[in-house]
Design brief:
There is one protein chain. By secondary structure, the chain is α/β, with parallel strands linked by helices. 27% of the residues lie in helices and 23% in strands. The strands form five sheets. It has a seven-stranded mixed β-sheet. Strands 11-10-12-13-14 form a five-stranded antiparallel β-sheet. A three-stranded mixed β-sheet has the order 17-18-19, covered by helices on one side. β18, α11 and β19 form a beta-alpha-beta unit. α7 crosses α8 and α10 packs across α11. About 2% of the residues have low confidence.
């Protein structure tokens, strides 16, 4: 009988902990002797320390396992925008490539050139790659989609972050008008939040399926796709996830609850630099019940832990996810324009995400929102925004509205 997905994860976890104990000086001291089996692996895992990105980096040299394989260094900047080096072996990259099902469709990847991949080793085998570093590159990507590649193939799958997909979509709408005739079948949108209205726009404009992917670039093998059955994300068999109480990391969050995500990347996808109980800094909400398709409860990404605030009720949090969808679909709300390139113009302004932040100043949670106009000059229109926010999120939260460029340090979503 074929093992279930959960059983596959536990088998992989037992193998991963065994390899870490054998190869990593750090884990050799922490993982007890004796056979590690699928039935006892979760208890062993739970006793190991958690690592946020800074803690993992500081212990990196001790965490590393011995390897005779070739080591390649790549770079990722993730949500923080700070470049970070990561190492991978040929065996790890081979395992990742073999885990992916090749459906024969040509892919075009839009990404920053240092985002989570070893260019030439990884992306060359995953399709065509265009880094959107300026609008000249957007024209290059548009030509590949409109006219095909040098070998005559047509692009069928478009892959990128929310921001990059929006930028290219708006650019091609302005250049060509109708996009549905180019034959794009699937648009994979990763990392950032995609509001319902923007998802509908992309589906209509491209005439394509929209797939939402959650992940963090330092662990590309753990990208989680949104399930069409339960509308939650699920990690692939290459990792094990835990969700813990941010205030008490030793306590697991129950089904339907919100908490901090921990991820353990499994062998053979990660071995040289183990990431065990890695805490990327994201909040998630566990589904209230298992998905009938996956047999496991999925999760909803909620945003960065640093951007969440408590409501005052035990275990209850307000998160960027609670607000980004409603704010992204209100034309009165300003959007971030830091994505604009020197050779572009304000026509691509709409590709940005809404400018807002959640604040807890001790008197209760607040959401601060920047508008495209001065709320003192247009009070009725400003009140409409506040009413829409209150209607979408039933919580006792103050809504503070700001004029253009008046909101200090809005969050990145």
């Amino acid at each position: 009988m074929q093992p279930t997905l959960t059983e596959q994860r536990l088998i992989g976890l037992a193998r991963t902990l065994t390899r870490a104990r054998e190869g990593s000086p750090f884990y050799r001291e922490l993982i007890p002797a004796g056979e590690i089996r699928p039935d006892n692996a979760p208890a062993i895992l739970r006793r190991l320390p958690q690592f946020d990105p800074d803690g993992w980096s500081s212990a990196r040299a001790q965490l590393r396992s011995t390897s005779t394989d070739s080591i390649v260094t790549g770079f990722t900047n993730g949500t923080s925008g700070v470049p970070k080096a990561f190492c991978s072996t040929e065996a790890e990259r081979t395992a990742l490539r073999s885990s992916r099902l090749d459906d024969g469709r040509r892919r075009l990847h839009l990404a920053g050139i240092s985002h989570g991949a070893v260019v030439g080793l990884d992306l060359a085998e995953e399709g065509d790659f265009v880094p959107l570093l300026s609008m000249r590159y957007a024209d290059m990507a548009a030509d590949l989609i409109a006219h095909g590649t040098a070998d005559g193939a047509r692009i069928r799958v478009l892959v990128g972050t929310t921001r990059h997909i929006k930028i290219l979509t708006l650019h091609m709408l302005q250049r060509f008008g109708d996009l549905s005739a180019f034959g794009i079948e699937t648009v994979e949108v990763g990392r950032d939040f995609l509001s319902p209205t923007w998802e509908s726009r992309l589906r209509t404009w491209w005439g394509a399926d929209i797939e939402c992917v959650y992940g963090f670039s330092e662990l590309r093998m753990c990208n989680a796709r949104k399930c069409r059955t339960c509308a939650h994300h699920h990690f692939p068999p290459s990792c094990v996830a835990e969700v813990v109480d941010p205030a008490d990391p030793d306590r697991y969050v129950p089904l339907g609850g919100r908490g901090s995500l921990l991820v353990t990347a499994l062998y053979p996808y990660v071995e040289f630099e183990p990431r065990i109980r890695y805490r990327p800094g994201d909040m998630v909400e566990i589904a209230p019940r298992p998905c009938p398709e996956w047999g496991e409860p999925g999760f909803l990404p909620l945003g960065r832990e640093a951007h969440c605030v408590t409501t005052g009720r035990s275990g209850d949090y307000l998160t960027p996810s609670d607000y980004v969808s409603v704010l992204a679909d209100l034309p009165q709300v300003a959007v971030a324009f830091d994505h604009l390139y020197p050779d572009t113009d304000q026509r691509h302004y709409e590709a940005g995400n809404p400018r807002f932040k959640l604040v807890d100043n001790g008197a209760g949670p607040e959401v601060h929102v920047e508008l495209r106009f001065d709320p003192l000059v247009w009070p009725r229109q400003a009140e409409e925004v506040a009413d829409a926010v209150h209607a979408a999120v039933p919580a006792d939260v103050r809504v503070l509205l700001y004029g253009p460029d008046r909101l200090h340090k809005p969050i990145l979503v």
